[in-house]
Fold:
Amino acid sequence: MKFLAGFLAATAMLLAAGAAAAQTAAGDWTGLLTANPAVTFRLAVHIQKSGDGYSGTLDDQSRGAYAIALTDESSPAYLPGLFQTALGSVLDSPRITEAAKTGEGFGWHEHGRDVFDGCERFFRPGYNANLTTGWLPALDGVEEKLHCW
Structure:
């Protein structure tokens, strides 16, 4: 629960102007996220404090998607895996820095578990939401070849 609370607090601070001065992460936070020059999302994060933890939802106002659960592991908006990956990379940074100094390099396989587990947790909901409904149908003839009769 502490990890989720930290994730929600970090998300709110990234999206809100002036969030660094906030006394609590609870509240409504809005902002623009520019994925690339052609794609901008108008987002709102709603954070509620409950006991020792937090819960929250995300609105993608630019696309009419509201109350996307940030705590639902099946939701494409479930982002804690991204933060777990980032944490794992930070924990690996002394070895990565040393490998860069010596020129030995640092292989993907040398990362700690948080990088691998975080990647899986981050990408799984998006793959589950899009693979059979969008990506495979967009490929001519692929669905038929994969279908078991």
Notes: The chain has a mean pLDDT of 79. Residues 13 and 19 are 5 Å apart (CA to CA).
